[in-house]
Amino acid sequence: MVQGNYNFVLVATSLLVAILASWTALDMVDRVNKSRRNVAIGWLLAGGFSMGIGIWSMHFIGMLAFNLPIPVGYDLLITLLSLSAAIASSTFALWLASQSTLPNWRVLPGGVLMGCGIAAMHYLGMEAMQMRPALSYDPLWFVLSILLAIAASWTALRVFFAMRENSRWSLRLAASVLLGVAVVGMHYTGMAATRVAEGAVCGALRGGLQFKPGQMAVLVTLLTLGVLAIVLLMSMMDKRMEARMLRMRNAMLSLSLEEATSELSQAGLRDPLTRLANRHLLNTRLADAIAASAGAGQRHALLVMDIDSFGNINDAYGHRTGDQLLVAVAERLRELARSNDTLARTSGDEYVLLTRLEDGDDIEQLAGRIIDSLSSEVLVDGLPMTLGTNLGVAITPDHAGSEEELMSHAVAAMQQAKLDGRNKWQLYSAWMSQSSQEQFRLLADLRQAIGSEQISLHYQPKVRALDGSIAGAVALLRWDHPQLGSIPSERVTRLAERGGLCQQLGNWVLDQTCAQLQQWHRAGYRDWSMSVTLSPLQLQDPHLLAHVQDCLARHQLPARQLILEITETTVMRDAQAALALLNSLSALGVGIAINDFGSGHASLLNLKQLTATELKLGPSFIQELEPGSNGVTILAALIALGHGLDMAVVANGITTREQRLRLERMGCDYLLGHLIGVAVAPARFEQLHAPRRLSSLDGDSMTGARNLPPATS
């Protein structure tokens, strides 16, 4: 048997080439994993080619390092087949490592297949010499080389998959050295298995590749380094381009968010159809006017008006024409308003004008000009229409000392003007309001009803958007008056506030909701939470914190499963005191939800001071959720803002399946609304919602609740 020896300079060179090829392969796995499909295929092919070239070069340089006492050549076709085996095995390895998962059942046969490919590369390369007599192989060393190839391949797959998200150069270098040593170890084990017979000659000398080993080793090394360098340079440039694009995209997103936030601020204060002030902005201006009247002695007039027979016009000509009519009315009122006046649209066809009364101002003349303007013919969508209006006026401080009272008195005056006929106006007088005797009787009835069967709580389901499971309930107040029938919760709340019953009623609601939640927890629904709305006066109660603590302790409830809902307007009435109380409640672990978020003028300025846990988007945003509309942009900004402040986002007022699907895709955490479920009594709630989950594609999510009355929050 012919004995050979090794050139250790070339052995070391083969090891360095193997390490560099492994580094390149790791970099290619990273590029494939982070690129889009078409680009990823390009990187996969480039990575397979460069890694195959590197492994084959290591093998070829290793063969050149083995010196035989006879001249040696290599058959070109077989050498190219050996190179092809290396490239194919490398491409397969990169493809397998770029998959989303790599379980053992996939990596083991993958390692066997890749190892056999590398072994095929080696032994094809040996056969390229076409020795006569043929080369033989020691069985033990031959099998060991195959096993080493499989082990090296298995290791490479595992390392590739584990390192594709790790960009630390030290770990990548260590992994490259490990893989390089493994591949080189397989090669030289295969070389140790090779047996060259005495008197053997190289058949590839005739027509094959002939060269001096040292010169060929230098040439192959340089070519391989060139290929690997080009691939790595392309990868580096792609990373820089990707980073630049990411910075540009982030900058654009930041700009879009700023624009959406600005638009959101305006949208929360403006009527989307007429761009007049909405009710929230009007309430703010009313509060300012009341304060100015009390402090500086200024007088302000509030004029409330609506359009006669607007419903008939809508029914006859359709909503599109009706909307155009509303815009036309808004334009006429703008022409009459002064620059410092506040002109608002508060409901369908109701407009409000708040104006400061200067010396010499005549309210009668102003009311007359408005009626004359709105009663003249207007052309809408090519149709001439003659309108009519009625107008009511209330003045502060003459008639009222609060914004709610001023508005109610102006509305009462408008209602009286309607009784007088079309195109009339009335200045408020005390007799226009409900008689004090009637108010007193109703207040007395409410005082007796608290704690009785007349007043009850119904519960509306709140579901998780992720899987449709019930997350908890929202408590809603009901008063079934024995003579007057069902009284809306809003009127009950206003009556309680005026009569000093707000604390008593609020404490009763808290106690009842906690008791109900405890009952559900004992029934096994321990992950359910309870949401309760706080009125503005409750936030002024110095005993609220103690009462919440007492309710939680008596009913043995985790604080995090009680969620107290407040509005932005509520907080801003006395921001400093309200924020202090709410933050104390939050410190207990109680959840704080900002209800109807996005409609208050100070939401973005004061939100960061409040340790809230939930952001509850009002129905007004949900109803404008149409593809391509500004509503989608605004809602996306709200959801991003909530998540950015580590708050769960609740979408309230969902009425259609399309709204639900879009809100789920936009990342809302919880869903609420008539589509999800109406408010029902506690026993009925458990019967309807406890045993099931609400699928986002379940069009019959209201099954069993279709005939129940709609919820009034």
From TrEMBL:
Q: What are the alphabetically sorted keywords of the record?
A: Membrane, Transmembrane, Transmembrane helix
Look up keyword Isomerase and say if it applies.
no
| One of the record's GO cellular component terms | membrane
- Sequence ranges assigned to domain EAL in this UniProt record: 439-693
Domain (MHYT) ranges? 6-197
Q: What PROSITE patterns does the entry give?
A: EAL (PS50883), GGDEF (PS50887), MHYT (PS50924)
The chain positions of domain GGDEF read 298-430
From the Swiss-Prot or TrEMBL record, give the protein name: Membrane protein
Lineage: superkingdom: Bacteria
Keyword Glycoprotein tagged? no
Q: Which PANTHER family match?
A: BIOFILM ARCHITECTURE MAINTENANCE PROTEIN MBAA, DIGUANYLATE CYCLASE DGCP
Q: Which organism is it from?
A: Stenotrophomonas ginsengisoli
